[in-house]
Specification:
Elements: E1 3-14, E2 17-23, E3 26-28, E4 32-36, H1 43-50, E5 58-63, H2 69-73, E6 76-79, H3 91-101, H4 104-112, H5 116-126, H6 142-153, E7 160-164, H7 172-189, E8 192-197, H8 200-203, E9 209-214, E10 217-223, H9 227-230, E11 232-239, H10 242-249, E12 258-261, E13 264-268, H11 276-285, E14 290-298, H12 300-308
Parallel strand pairs: 4-8, 4-9, 6-7, 7-8
Antiparallel strand pairs: 1-2, 1-3, 1-5, 9-10, 11-13, 11-14, 12-13
Helix pairs in contact: 3-5, 6-7
């Protein structure tokens, strides 16, 4: 699988403060990479470095397996901060103007052997703005402006889109529309995404891999498919005979998932879920007196909050 972005020890300082601190990131083709961190954690600065809008103080950036910045730049689209739009123009007119600015006819439409108008209408449809295509962008909602920005970023058919906080400030309906547009672009165009956000729940429905940043450091990279492993549930049962309780509980979960502190038996439900009612029934049936039973859950959100810094 081709590597779209790889950074090694990437660092950017402002004064004595390392806003991006020794970050090594890896994004493969086809991934939707969620870059998660609190406001001020260094997400935007990192993206500006990737896009060539700022120069690093240390480290390396490799794009598309080591292509030159000029060659790789033609394959990248971005929205950093709010998209710049011609507010007195419609969606179609905006795309037409931006298409001219980036010399789109020579790099995009001719390559696919379709005309510019066809491509513009296709992008308007993919981001869900067909019904508002003739409406002036100045009258668009924030979510519609963001989706138009996505379409503009797709002019020239980039293979990699870098989006900085695309759902920030949107209501639930607007967030869903952005998610749908991103999914549509991924399916229709095979685009790879790097998307920053401080809103975990809003990205979780589309992200395939996460990078967690805290105070300039990339704390961890984790695949979305592994998140269930990162969340955990445990049960603590207080009994009169811990040794006998462990013997009975060992028939429900692996022995290594059981620990004892005085009369409290702690059970990790990481490998095997343990229904509390069934656990209590077995202990009582075996003559073990249960004086307390507590369930404790650590959610995926708790996992991220802990790593992003409280």
């Amino acid at each position: 699988m081709q590597t779209i972005l790889e950074t090694r020890g990437l660092t950017k300082k402002y004064g004595n403060k390392a806003v991006v601190n020794n970050i090594s990131m890896h994004i493969d083709r086809g991934e939707v990479y969620g870059f998660i961190g609190r406001n001020g954690a260094g997400k935007t600065t990192f993206m500006r470095l990737v896009l060539g809008l700022a120069l690093p103080d240390a480290g390396e950036i490799s794009l598309f397996g080591g292509e030159s910045r000029k060659s790789a730049g033609q394959k990248i689209g971005s929205i950093v901060e709010a998209p710049a739009l011609y507010t007195n123009c419609s969606a179609y007119e905006n795309l037409k103007r931006f298409s001219t600015l980036i010399n789109y006819n020579r790099r995009g439409a001719q390559k696919r052997e379709i005309n510019e108008d066809q491509m513009i209408h296709e992008l308007i449809d993919i981001v869900g703005l067909t019904d508002a295509a003739k409406k002036k962008a100045g009258h668009y909602s924030l979510g519609m402006k963001q989706r138009l920005g996505l379409a503009i970023a797709m002019l020239g058919e980039p293979e990699f889109l870098v989006l900085d906080e695309p759902v920030n400030g949107l209501d639930p309906a607007g967030i869903k529309e952005i998610r749908d547009a991103i999914n549509n672009l991924k399916q229709a165009k095979g685009v790879t995404f790097l998307i920053s956000s401080h809103l975990l729940d809003e990205l979780s429905k589309i992200v395939t891999k996460y990078g967690i940043i805290n105070d300039g450091y990339l704390v961890e990279e984790v695949r979305a498919s592994d998140l269930d492993r990162m969340s955990s549930r445990s049960v603590t049962v207080v009994v009169d005979d811990p040794a006998k309780a462990v013997e009975i509980i060992s028939g429900l979960v692996p022995r290594e998932d059981i620990s004892v502190v005085e009369h409290a038996v702690n059970i990790s439900c990481h490998n095997v879920p343990v229904p509390s009612a069934e656990l209590n029934r077995r202990l009582v049936s075996a003559g073990v007196s249960v004086s307390a039973l507590h369930n404790k859950s650590v959610s995926v959100e708790d996992y991220f909050i802990e790593r992003m810094g409280r």
